[in-house]
């Protein structure tokens, strides 16, 4: 490695400190900040983001990147490649486009909140039109800089290395198989006795203690992170200080518990990133798909499995002081509650079987929007058609249709597919892990996550961004990412009722 | 005003955002941060501080300051003057001296923690020697840049505009009067029946509710701030988001309550700064002395007054569910508990009568150290002599002597006098306020702080740094800062037992 590379490492370490600061300030904004300071905080965050952008796009940085030689070490080489990718993304956009995007999405997000409430797509259309126009310019500018199509360039912002040509065949397979599979699962479910609801209330202090207990069980390091409460659960904070949140309802503890498990999956990834590289681009998570695979690994693959439910049932009864023999609190019923399938209109409420359908619809639509093949006035009808064809439901209003998500109003195009890819990746990784190490499944049945986490550390977490998502999945599982493992998982859990699924 | 000035306002607004970020991150460090991330956070803070220093000392900034013309508006003129002062402080020190100071004080602070525990002055001496040598260089460099003596230059870092020549006669007066006054107060106190201790425990949730109730009573805006818990109470956060902390003990509620009142005094000052100028140097608090005067105004001047105790006694009984007639909880006894005087060795535990003595000793010693008139090996004996001559106590070990405070180990010379000046200023301001507006005292007796806060807003808070501490005190009270009001206050409260003192 040469001096220019060493100098770049110092610059990027400074950028990493700014990112840490932004991470903690964003966490604070959602968890701690008094509401009267919201505008000022927004200004502060914008100024810090601006500083980061300034440092990243300074002429000196381009010179150093041109001169840099990372030498033979594969991590330093990968680090330099990531530096160049990040730099290209940042410098691809002219300053006035960045500013126009910020202003348009700020306006659009506010307009969307009102439009959603009133199911007023027509009122929102001018905002979405503006955001889409600007996002298409972003895609073109980034695409030109990266040598990619506009949609691939947008994808690359969230999931480096993932391309439309990888996704299309996978999603085509899901589109073919999913409707029949959902129907079969619903038929099987209807043939079984109905689940018994759990009766609350469930005191919040106990829910919180339960969440902390499960985080500990998963191996979360409380000396380098926190659990708190926010309106929308998330995993954020800084590289050495991973902070997750949940929200509690007294009437039902399952949403908070599953929320903590989901976010702890994200957090374990962050805490498992290589300590020596945390302040460099190569030491960051490999993108949205791998991140989501880690949260779904915990929440969906493991913690809704029969084996885990067997282990957790006594802990739940003890937490909420329920008699050991109460029928609703037996593993069988708890498992049924945790794996209930019900096609619905709202993506974020969907179970793991119907969830990908929501993504397939959005993926097609956003590709068409970026390409210019879908006039925005036709979006609601196209969205509703998609829901009807994949889930058999009629959308009664746009509030529960194409206005339900914040992503497009915020200018996030190329983000949705990662959710479904993450679900597929989680199934593929879990299947490979259980096959490669026969001790993992029995350990989970004892509530022991250590062997699974060790496998994930070795095969996923510790690789950080030294490889791309497609490379990480292939190396860990021996095959490229596909829908196979996910479809097999759904059949085993929901049709075969395999005892470990 | 010209373009250069306008450009400076933009630069300083960016610096203000960085300061806000640092303020919230420092608060988080004390209140929220998991301990395993302490080193990383220290790095992050150092890097953000470095960025701020870089922006402030960039060549462009010097050019703009040279070109700038603030025009005729007095606030813009004062703002430019403050920009120049801040810039001079920042650019006065060569980079290697700043770095040497940071490293030396980090080492010294760690060594001090151990040395204090073991009363090991000899072991700490090399560290203090290094820190003092560097601090003398800082004083000389800043002094040369500001046209001040080294000690005045150090003072100016904490209390702009305050000079040794202002302090010397005031402290000389205290040195003459204080020993006799303390003796008289103790004699008077001994002639009265002993106070009755309050019996706990005092549940922490109720102490916290009491603290919030009192903050509300003082007018603290909870939409722009918070109350939390930390090991050492402080008031920090950001310009629009003032965060104070306290700590609770179950056995005694008075320390936490007085802590909240003290920090709320600081916080009211911050919340009362002019909103339009918050992101500019002129909009900041006018320095340590005025800040301390505002905390002591609330904690000492008002909330230990007989009038306030009369009002608060029923609230305290109600909070802790004490019968109305319990003798210990009558105003008379509560007031005696809150105004108990006891010469002691530890500065931070001192009452308002003996507190200035601790400062007089440190002021003389630190002036001599900076001047080079005191060999550090002679510091313990000189410190102990001072305590003996002013408070009549023998210091049994350096842990309770010259090793008790973190200030010198941290390189804070010129900081101590502001504590005592703040106490004098609080008495002088309170006396002037009560004289100028006869409605203030009766309002306090009703628990109504609004008129007093209005007076402070007008005469102190809203002036921010548009004037220096000496100017603010003189304009608000009609006289330069002196010990008169403080001495009169002590006599009225502790000797005359005036009904409103």
Automatic annotation (TrEMBL), chains A, B:
Active-site positions on this chain: 263 (proton donor/acceptor)
Residues involved in Zn(2+) binding: 262, 266, 292
Keyword set includes Endoplasmic reticulum: no
Keyword Metal-binding: yes
Binding note for cofactor: Binds 1 zinc ion per subunit.
Catalytic activities: Release of a C-terminal amino acid with broad specificity, except for -Pro
Example GO molecular function: metallocarboxypeptidase activity
Cofactor list: Zn(2+)
Keyword terms of this UniProt record: Carboxypeptidase, Hydrolase, Metal-binding, Metalloprotease, Protease, Zinc
SUPFAM superfamilies noted in UniProt: Metalloproteases ('zincins'), catalytic domain (SSF55486)
Cross-referenced InterPro entries: Peptidase_M32_Taq
E.C. number: 3.4.17.19
Gene3D superfamilies: 1.10.1370.30
GO biological process: proteolysis
Its biological purpose: Broad specificity carboxypetidase that releases amino acids sequentially from the C-terminus, including neutral, aromatic, polar and basic residues.
Stated family: Belongs to the peptidase M32 family.
Protein name in UniProt: Metal-dependent carboxypeptidase
């Amino acid at each position: 490695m040469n001096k220019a590379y060493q100098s770049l490492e110092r610059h990027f370490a400074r950028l990493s400190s700014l990112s840490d600061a932004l991470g903690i300030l964003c966490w604070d904004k959602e968890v701690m900040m008094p509401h009267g300071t919201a505008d000022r905080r927004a200004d502060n965050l914008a100024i810090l983001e601006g500083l980061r952008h300034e440092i990243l796009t300074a002429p000196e940085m381009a010179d150093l990147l041109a001169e840099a030689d990372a030498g033979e070490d594969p991590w330093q080489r990968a680090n330099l490649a990531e530096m160049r990718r990040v730099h290209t993304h940042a410098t691809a956009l002219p300053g006035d486009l960045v500013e126009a995007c910020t202003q348009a999405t700020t306006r659009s997000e506010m307009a969307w909140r009102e439009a959603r409430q009133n199911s007023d797509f027509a009122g929102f259309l001018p905002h979405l039109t503006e955001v889409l126009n600007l996002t298409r310019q972003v895609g073109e500018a980034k695409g030109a800089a990266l040598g990619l199509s506009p949609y691939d360039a947008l994808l690359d912002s969230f999931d480096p290395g993932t391309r439309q040509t990888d996704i299309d065949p996978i999603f085509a397979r899901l589109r073919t198989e999913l409707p029949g599979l959902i129907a079969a699962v619903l038929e099987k479910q209807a043939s079984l006795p109905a689940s018994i609801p759990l009766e609350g209330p469930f005191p919040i202090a106990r829910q919180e203690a339960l969440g902390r207990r499960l985080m500990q069980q998963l191996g979360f390091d409380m000396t380098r992170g926190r659990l708190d409460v926010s309106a929308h659960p998330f995993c954020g904070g800084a590289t050495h200080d991973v902070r997750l949140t949940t929200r509690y309802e007294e009437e039902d503890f399952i949403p908070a518990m599953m929320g903590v498990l989901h976010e702890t999956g994200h957090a374990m990834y962050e805490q498992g990133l290589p300590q020596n590289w945390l302040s460099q681009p190569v030491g960051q998570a490999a993108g949205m798909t791998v991140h989501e695979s880690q949260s779904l690994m915990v929440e969906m693959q493991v913690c809704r499995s029969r084996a885990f439910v067997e282990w957790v049932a006594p802990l739940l009864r003890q937490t909420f002081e329920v008699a050991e023999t109460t029928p609703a609190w037996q593993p069988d019923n708890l498992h049924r509650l945790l794996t209930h399938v019900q096609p619905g209109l709202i993506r974020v409420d969907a179970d793991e079987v119907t969830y990908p359908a929501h993504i397939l619809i959005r993926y097609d639509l956003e590709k068409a929007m970026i390409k210019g093949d879908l006039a925005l006035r036709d979006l609601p009808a196209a969205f509703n058609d998609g829901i009807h064809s994949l889930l058999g439901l009629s959308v009664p209003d746009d509030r529960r249709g194409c206005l339900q998500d914040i992503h497009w109003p915020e200018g996030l195009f190329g983000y949705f597919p990662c959710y479904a890819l993450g679900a597929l990746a989680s199934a593929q990784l879990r299947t490979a892990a259980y096959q490669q190490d026969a001790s993992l499944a029995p350990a989970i049945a004892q509530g022991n996550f250590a062997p699974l986490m060790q496998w994930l550390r070795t095969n996923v977490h510790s690789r950080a961004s030294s490889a791309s998502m497609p490379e990480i999945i292939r190396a860990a599982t021996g095959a490229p990412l596909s829908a196979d493992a996910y479809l097999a998982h759904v059949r085993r859990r929901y049709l075969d009722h395999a005892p470990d699924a």
